[in-house]
Each structure stands twice: as C-alpha cells, then as structure tokens.
C-alpha cells in the first residue's frame, strides 16, 4: 500500500505495550516513526535495545530520547503514550497544547467523571477538563467519535474482553446488566515489565491465583461503559486471576437473560436474538470473531493478532447465559487496539498494519 | 511410626493418579504394597517403569501384573482403583465378592441414583445395587460413614474444590444454593495420561481455554452432595477451564447470601457467621486451610500436598460472596484424598503418610 | 507490493510446519494459495480448521482436499511438501513429472548419497535419481543453485542452526571440523503434531531431557554439508535435547581453532578473522544477525521471525571457540526458510512475505 | 524413627534454598528447628510467611528473627547458612567462635586457595584461615572428612551435576580431564529469589539463553575438585544456560577417553571399565542413580528428590564419551545435599529426612 505517512512518536517505548507498539508501527505502511522516548534507554539505538526489530522496514536508525515533551513534541504529529497510570496525563496535556494528537494507553483519560476516578485511583484527577474531551477508544463501538478525536483513551485489556461481548446485549436489553459476573484470566505481561518478586518466573510458573478481588480499578471503566449502554447505573462482579502464560486474556461471563425462558422454543428464540444482535453489531468488524454457540474460544487462536473471539452457551438447566472471550492483552487489549484507533483517526482502512 | 501394615493393591497404577498413589503408598508406614496392576507395563519391574521410586522404603521389587481380579485379588486386603470411569466397576464388583475392601478413584460409584448416572454418563449403570452401599469419600464431611465402608467412592477433583467451601454454607442456610457459580481452572494432569492432540505440550502451553460448558459430568456429584446439604434439589453453574500447569485446581465461586445485607453491620455479622461456620466444620481438619477474608489462595501453596486452602471476600458493592479454593488435583483431588479415606478405614491418624 | 502471483499448493497443511506455511503464504504478496491438502481435514474449510487465519488477506475460502497428486497437481505451479520423512518423495516424484516445482521440507532429498540415506534412515532411498538434482535449500550459502532449482530440499531445523555459524569457518579453514560438538535445545513443536505420550504437556513441562544421542538422523545432512565445506569427510558430535518451550532452537557449538593461539595478540587476530569471515559471508543476509563476541543469543529474540542470530566467545583459558545460535525451528528452521527459497526461485526480494 | 534431636538454625530462610531447607528440616526426625532468621520477615511467624508449612510436624510456632549472630547463635548447636555469596562468611566466623557447627550453602568456603577465590569472585577472601578447615560437602566423595567437620562448604548446584559423573573417571585416569566440556541447563530458581527484570516470568518463559560464558564463577570449585582427582591442574569448558523450568539441572558432558579405542572390543572393554568404576564409587550411594548406557536422564525423574541420576553413551563414530546427569538444583544441588552432610555429621543414616 502506498499511504501518506503520519509522523508518529511513542512515549514510554520500553515496557511491554511500548515494545508491541514498536513491533506494529515499524511495519505500518502509514507511519513514519520519528521519535521514541525511554528514560531507561535514552541515548541508545532502538535496535540495540530491541535487536529483534533490526530488520524491520521502518527502522530508521532511531535513538531513544529522554521523555521531555517540550523537546520531543516537535518531532511528530501524533503520539502514543505507553506510560503507567498517573503519569500519562502530564504528557497528554503538554502535547495537546502543542497541537498534537494523542492516543493514551493508560487509564488516565478513560473515565468521564473525576469523582469515579478519585474513588478508584485514590487521588484527585489532575486534568479533569480533559475527561470531557477524551474519547473511549473501543473502535467497534465508538468509531465515529474516534474519527475526529484529539485525545483517545485506549481501553484496558480486561474491559475490552468484557465490553465486546456484553455491550450489545445490555444496549438491546437482552440481559440484566447487574447480573453480570466477569471471571477473567490474564497472562503475566498484563502486570507490566517491572522488577517485582510476585512476577518472577518461579513465582508465576505452576501457579494459579486470584488478585484484586472484589474491587479492581478496571471496574470503573467497565461499569461506566455498561451504564451508558444500559442508560442506568450498572454494578458488576469482576474477578481477575493471574495464570502462567506470557500473553492472553480469557474471560468467562455469566448473565441472566431479561426474558423469562421456560420452553425450549423460548431458548431457541433467545439464541436467535443473540445471533442477530451480534451480527448487527459486528458483522463488519474485522477483528471480532463471533463463534456463536458452536465454538469455544482459546487464547492460542488470537495471541499475536488484534482479534478478539467469543462464543456463548445458553444453559437449559440454569437459564443462565455463559459468554467466553479470548484476546491478546498486548494487542487487542493494548497496542493493537491503539493502532486501530490511529487508523480510524487517519482514514486508513481499520486493519492497516494489523494483519 | 510402627503401625500394623495393611496389604494393599493398586489397580491401574500407570496413569497420573496411579503414579501418585505409588508415591504415597510406598512411603506410608501402615502399608505393604503387595500388588500393582498395569496392562501396559505387565511383567516389568515397578522401578523400571518409574525409576524415581527406586530409593523409596516400601519398594520391595514388585512387578506389575495383568489386571485379572480373580488372580491378583488374593494378594491384598484392600484395593485402590485408579481406572477410567466405566471400567472400575467390574473390578470393584469382583473384589468385593472376594471379601476385599475397595477405594475407587473413578466416578463409577459416586452417584446414589442410577438415573442421574445414566443422564450424565450416557449409559445404564451396570451395578446399581452397589450405589446404595458406596460411601462418598470426602473425609472432612463424611468421616463416620467412611470408617465402616467396604466401598468408598473417592470424590472428583473439581467436586472437592467446590464442596469443601460451599457445603457448610448450604447446610447452614447461609447462601442460596441455586445461586452458586463455580468457575474452575485445572492443570493438564486432570485430563489423564492419554495420547491425544489437545493435550500435547504445544497445544496446552500458552493456551487458556474453557471446555465441557455448560454440562460437565462432575456436575452430577456436586449437585447430589449440595442437594443433600440443602435438603432440596440444587442446580448450579459449573465452568471448567484448562490452563497450562501440570497440577492444581483453582476454583472461584460466586453465591448470593440468603440474608439481606443492607448495612455495614449486617455485612460484618455475616462475615462472623462465615468464620464461625467454617471453624465449626474444619477447625479439626488437618488438610483444610481456611484463609478467611484475609488471604487469597494460590495453587503453588498446595501443590504436592493434601491440603485444600480457601478464602473469601464479601463484596459490599454487589452483595455477593466470592469464595476461592486451591488444591492439587492429583493429591487432595485424587490419590491423597483416597489415602485419607484409607487412614480413616484403618483407624490410623488421618494424616498418616500424607505429610 | 504489486507482484505477479504464483499459484502455490501446500501438501500436508495440518502439521506445525504446514500451519506455519499457511500463516506465511496467506499473507505473501506474490502467492495465490490455490490448493492445500490434508488427509485429516479433507473437505473442511481451511478457516474452519484454523480460525485464526479467517481475517488473512489471502484466504479465498479454500477447502482442504485429499492428497492425490494426480488430481491436485493441476491446480498450482509450485508445491510445498510439509510431510513426514519417507512420505514426501512419492509426491515430489509425481509433481515433478507433471512439470511442477517442489520445495520439500522433509529429509527425503537432502542427502546426495543414497548409501548415507540408507545408513541413517534405515531403508533404501526410493528415488535415488532425484538426489542428484535436488538442491539443499540454505539460501545464505546456496543461493545460486536455488535460483534455477526444480526441487529444493529445505534443510532441517537443527542443521540450519549448526551450519550457519560453522560453514564459513570450516570453508576458510579456521577451525578443525572434527572438533565440532553441537549441543542443541529444541522446543516441543520440533517433534511434530502427533499424539504421543512423551510429548504430552505434563510429560514435557518441567522436564529437561536429552534424546537421540549419539547418532541422530540430522547428523547425516550436517556432516554432508560440512564435508563439502572442508573438502574432506567430517564427523561431528551432535546432542539434541527437548526443553519446554513451544518454539525455538538454541545451539551451543564447541570447536578448536586450527591456528595455535598462544598470545593475547594471536587471540585478538583470530577474533578479527572471525569477524571478517562472517562479514564476508553474511553482511548481505537479511536473516542472519551476527552478534560477534559482544552479545549472546536468546530464542525469544527470534521466535516468530525468519532470523537466525548467533554470537561467539573465544575462551582464553581453554583456547576453544564457543559459538551460540538461536532460531525459530518452525520459521528459519522450516517454513520460513522454505519461503525464502521460494522467493529466490521466483526472483522476488528474499525477504518478501517474511517481515 | 526416634532419633535424638539436634537444635538447628537456618540463617537466611526466605530465599529458595532457605525455603527448601525449611521444607526438609521441619519434617526431619532428628531436628528441632529452634531459630530461623530473615531480615525481610523478622518478627513474622514462619507459617504466616510460608502457609504451606502450617501442617508440618516440626512447626513449633517459630517467628523469624533478625540475623544478629551474637543473639541467635545461642539458640541452636548447628546452623545452615542460606545466604548470598560474600555474606555468609561473617556469620560463619561468628558462629564458629561461639562453638557452633556450620553448614554453608554459599560459595564462601568452597575454595582452598584464597588466590583462586580472588580471581573468580573479584575481591580478597575475608577469612582465608577458614579455607583450610572447611570441608567440601559432597558426601558421595568426601564422607569421612564431613563426619568430623566443624565447617562444611556445601557444593554448588552445577558443580554437583558435573563432579558426580566425572570425578571417578578422572581419578581412575579413564578420561583426559582437560577435554571435559560441561554444557548445563538450569531452571530459574537457580538465579535466586531476587526482583530483577531478566528473571521475570515473561522474560524467561519461552526463552532459551546461554549466560556467564566462558568463565562462570562455579568453574573455580569444579576445576579445584577435578584437579585433586587428577593430581594435576585441570582446566575445563563450562557453559551454563537458563531454561524455563522452576527446578532442575540437566548437564551434558563431553570427554575424550585416555585409552585409544580402535576396535569394537576396545569400546566394549572401556564400557565395562566405566560400569565397574561407577559401581565401585556409587553402589552404596542411596542418592546416585547410575543409568549406565541403557537410559537417559530427565529432570522430571529427580525434581523434588535428593537423587542425581546419570547415564552415558560411548560414541563409536567420534570416540567421545557423552555423559548426562539430572538433579534438582534446590535439593541435591543445595538444601538436600546440605541435609545429607548434616546426617553424616550427626551419625544419622545418610537418607534421614530425605526420602
């Protein structure tokens, strides 16, 4: 493809999401990667730090620079922020003032209400005025707003795995939103690249463990988006678990259908409604693979891709709907999703550089 | 310890549960292992097949023999059956007729009602008369019946991980039994030692996947035992998942408290009820580690032991109770639990050979 | 890129190498995948069997067909054979007679001398006349012959990891070829996708084990190629090991320098010779990353790519040269290498479809 | 067993070797664990930090204490030091002055010559006078000296895996000691429990990598012990690799037989010599499993045990001897080996508490 190239910067390129952004953007036909910051690697060549990118086409001999937004801001027109929560907002503020566009992979701009932010993140939001402007970057559900956004808040990995299967059902009133239980398994890269005993190989290998139960921070954005879909405040159950894979999120969701299902024909009709609904929402979405009730997801089918796949079973015995989704937490759950927003913002085909 | 030694046989000693039984019984001070059958290894020395047991004290140069119950039955007084479901019953019938005691690790004698068996296992039960006699071998809840049993049906791995945390609450009427959702993760040894593509290293490593949803066979015994506890028919939701560890089951359970919980004081009171209840049931149980609401389980704390640990959180936001348990599927979920029953049947201290 | 498209077939598309070929060829801009055979999946849609390819650009709704060369041969001009050793030759013979080109990933045509084949594979070679014609498909060392080949025998995974670092040194007479010891670690996908107890998850996870020592079949092609380089018969030591990763080969090589190295200056000069030699051989090779003596390879830097990286240390204490290489056994060690040959045969840039 | 109990202390009980010592000593019938130090966990109950030991028989409600040797020294008669290299010597000096016995798991007292220590550890040895007194704690080869030792320097994990198979052959003059090449694979617990990026789960999983090549510190003790066996200075090649398992070392050794082997009968005779030699050295050693040339080792046969198993192949093609050993780096390579020395020092059967 011969696309016009956008000058792009990555701020915080040395974590796992940053590295995945490098992997995607160095091969993206519409991107000229013109700046990459890293406090840790400042001054070093990108390909010294990440030799595996040395033969990539977009590798122009770039050196990592210090993350001073006043300096690096001039070198690109759009910036991806792959920084920890609570750090990204500083850069976003400065870059927007310089007239740049920003796609932020952190949680800093995902919430509309600064009070919710304060409740879940335990400090006041430093730039509440930007919360109104920022757009939640779930392309499958929010494409039009993303097109014209200056500031995209790219969704969290767990929220993506939950919102894609549930939002259509909540919006159409097919399930009781407050009945939703999300039981999620995440690979260890979800914890980030930080030196910490609980994430050592020996601590994670041959270990299965819940954490952050019952009030994980990601609940705030999940409930916000489901509340918009339900047009009322929604509270759900969310239980993350750490399991020994590098990448991948497997989410199992439980929900009660709104309609009373008493006969086999009512079950069958409800199943048809599910299929129709998902078809309405996702038949044009390259990266959503709906398995309906004839397949079960497996993270190994999606790891390394921007695809989220999901299937479901309507249990005749309990009357519950069980939904199951799989995604790569670093691609559809982070860097890939951000590039998808980038494509939409720049009028590129949504899958450019993602297949 | 100087215990009188019981002559013991293992039928089907070459699978993963059989191997774990060998590991435990060869070092058990109250056991003389006098016979071990294996179709596959018949004629070979036990320590040729499993060199890692060569320096164990109970290794008496035993050879594996063919599984002909009429022949091997005379060599021991009590038999552990580590055979596939649908195969064990033949051996149990023959051995009981020879006056032997049997501890069966398969599902063949776990159900009371042959119609339930037929519904879940899809063929008629061949020895329905033994279903009345067999005792469900969950020592923590069933010790008295096990003491005098001739035929113990040792519980499944998933059922153990679910019944230990929920039975006391159902029996005491603290939770709505039909609200129970059990979301379970199992290591790959749970699938047995059979040559099959889906259990190859490459297929399981870096893979997270649900299976058997929504009607896995283990539901039958879980619901049977919970129904006894509730004194009414109980139906629950059960979702097993395969995750890449060798051993370990991590179960996350969701349940609705029966009592309405509206104020913080009612939550606190309910939490006290939970602690009191678990203390009543398990304070004398060596192998149950109750973490209350101050710890979360991790399979790596229990793998290689006969311990099941569990903790819980009472969610103020949703009102739901979240329970989480961890066990080793081959020990507390299979061979260790069977040895625990053996100890009770022979008046040994319950933890003999298990610590 | 707008390349003319070659009509291509894959014979044996359901194993691990076949699946990797699908991954590469479905996205290759110079390929129209027009036929894929699989005994096991015949009649099924390619994307039913491998849902992860459904959003790939080259997916034209292909169905797997039975592997009857007289029928499928007409549908393409060039065929990749991803079949077990001892099976590929039948297809190769028939396809060549039909005027097709063949790139064979098996060992069937890698040896020049039918007697060597018989010694290592323990049966007579069925088509010895093709051994003369077939070209050993190691593009970095054999590009010119590959260009005009009708039948390419793509190298084995272990041989590639050994020949790339050693051939230049043997050809230039820098090391004693008979002193070479190759100690190799392979991920489990190297064993193929066959249902077999030793490759079950539980058997491989948390296991490190040697196998095939001291006379593994791959020795035959390694020694053949090194003998050509040395212009005399070479015998080396080769020790493969199975380790718990999905993909990746890590090879550590030991060799004695020919020159006597007594002073620090002679060591330094020898190191310069090594760097110059590798530069002469590989400075134009996109897929060879020479780390010299300043870096050590790691399979995670190359997995998923067609790159082989290698480095070395010249030990002042022992005088030995230690060489270490890393590659992905399914890409550079199998499917990627085959596509690299394909590119050369069709005058495409060598890295087309491989970055 | 009713053994008199020795009062024992563990200094540095919170690392991986320390934890394994707890596991072994809490169940050892001849041990009263009376003190355990940990800077990190000082003041906390042992079973709070390691809940998995709560049901162990020797758990007397011990609290971790600060590592001040003047204070804790009085509470036990023998101390295990599980401290980092360069730290252990301070504790050893103080405890010996208090009349205690010490088994040190670090490298601080393994070398006889302070100059060798300085060469490999890059600082002067602080207590060179103790190097003469300390005994290298390889029970299989050094039992008599261990019996009467006040200070045992327990061998490193790699050295154990190398010395057990090679020492007898070097001592008997069967192989050229300088021809020895040791290619070793280690699980990640070998790197210790320290928060460091290269040992994170994501960095180690699906990664195979060499390190410390060509001059790893463990060479110093390996060469010292082989030099004693050879009665001349020996220099060998040693290449450690990090592979993704929790525990286990797999070592592959290459050596040239001293005798010229030209005929099949000379090979057969040499093989007989090997078997006789190993039988002379190890037939009474409970923890050495000699597989001869009829089996290959696998770490999964020894993990969790104090056994080292090894086998060998005499290659007719190259004339080289290939030896392969497997051990658990935390048991035979660390804590188990130290307990084995403890048993010898206290006249307990060598396998007490280790089976």
Could you explain the architecture of this structure?
The structure is a homotetramer of 355-residue chains. Chain A is an alpha/beta fold and 355 residues long. Chain A has two domains: 6-133, 3-Layer(aba) Sandwich (Rossmann fold); 158-329, 2-Layer Sandwich (Dihydrodipicolinate Reductase, domain 2), CATH 3.30.360. Chain A is 33% helix and 19% strand. Chain A has helices at residues 16-25, 46-49, 69-72, 88-97, 114-121, 128-133, 139-147, 157-171, 201-204, 219-230, 264-282, 331-345; strands at residues 6-11, 31-37, 78-81, 101-104, 135-136, 151-153, 181-186, 209-210, 237-242, 249-255, 288-292, 308-314, 321-327. A seven-stranded mixed β-sheet of chain A has the order 8-9-7-10-13-12-11. A six-stranded parallel β-sheet of chain A has the order 2-1-3-4-6-5, with helices on both faces. In chain A, helix 1 (16-25) links the parallel strand 1 (6-11) and strand 2. In chain A, helix 1 packs across helix 12 (331-345) and helix 8 (157-171) runs parallel beside helix 10 (219-230). Chains in contact: A-B, A-C, A-D, B-C, B-D, C-D. Chain A binds chain D through residues 16, 187-189, 193, 195-197, 199-206, 244-246, and chain D through 16, 188-189, 193, 195-197, 199-206, 244-246.
């Amino acid at each position: 493809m011969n696309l016009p190239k956008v000058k792009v910067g990555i701020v915080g390129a040395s974590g796992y999401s940053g590295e995945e952004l490098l992997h995607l953007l160095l091969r993206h036909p519409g991107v000229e990667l013109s700046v990459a910051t890293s406090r840790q690697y400042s001054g070093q060549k990108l390909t010294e730090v990440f030799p595996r990118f040395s033969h990539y086409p977009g590798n122009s001999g770039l050196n990592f620079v210090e993350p001073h937004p006043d300096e690096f801001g001039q070198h690109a027109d759009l910036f991806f922020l792959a920084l920890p929560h609570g750090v990204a907002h500083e850069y976003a503020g400065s870059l927007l003032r310089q007239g740049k566009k920003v796609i932020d992979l952190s949680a800093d701009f995902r919430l509309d209400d600064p009070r919710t932010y304060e409740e879940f993140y335990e400090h006041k939001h430093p730039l509440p005025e930007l919360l109104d402007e920022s757009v939640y970057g779930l392309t499958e559900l929010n494409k039009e707003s993303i097109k014209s956004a200056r500031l995209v808040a790219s969704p969290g990995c767990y929220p993506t795995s939950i919102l894609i299967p549930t939002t259509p059902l909540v919006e159409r009133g097919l399930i009781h939103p407050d009945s939703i239980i999300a039981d999620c398994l995440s690979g260890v890269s979800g914890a980030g690249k930080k030196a910490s005993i609980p994430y050592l190989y020996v601590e994670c290998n041959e270990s299965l463990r819940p954490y952050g139960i019952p009030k994980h921070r990601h609940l705030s954005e999940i409930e916000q988006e489901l509340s918009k879909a339900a047009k009322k405040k929604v509270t759900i159950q969310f239980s993350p678990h750490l399991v020994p894979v590098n990448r991948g999120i497997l989410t199992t969701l439980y929900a009660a259908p709104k309609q009373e299902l008493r006969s086999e024909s009512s079950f069958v009709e409800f199943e048809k409604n599910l299929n129709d609904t998902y078809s309405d929402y996702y038949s044009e979405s390259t990266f959503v693979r709906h398995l309906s009730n004839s397949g079960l997801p497996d993270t190994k089918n999606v790891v390394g891709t921007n695809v989220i796949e999901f299937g479901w079973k309507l249990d005749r015995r309990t009357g519950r709907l069980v939904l199951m989704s799989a995604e790569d937490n670093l691609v559809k759950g982070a860097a890939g999703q951000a590039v998808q927003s980038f494509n939409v913002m720049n009028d590129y085909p949504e899958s450019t550089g993602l297949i």
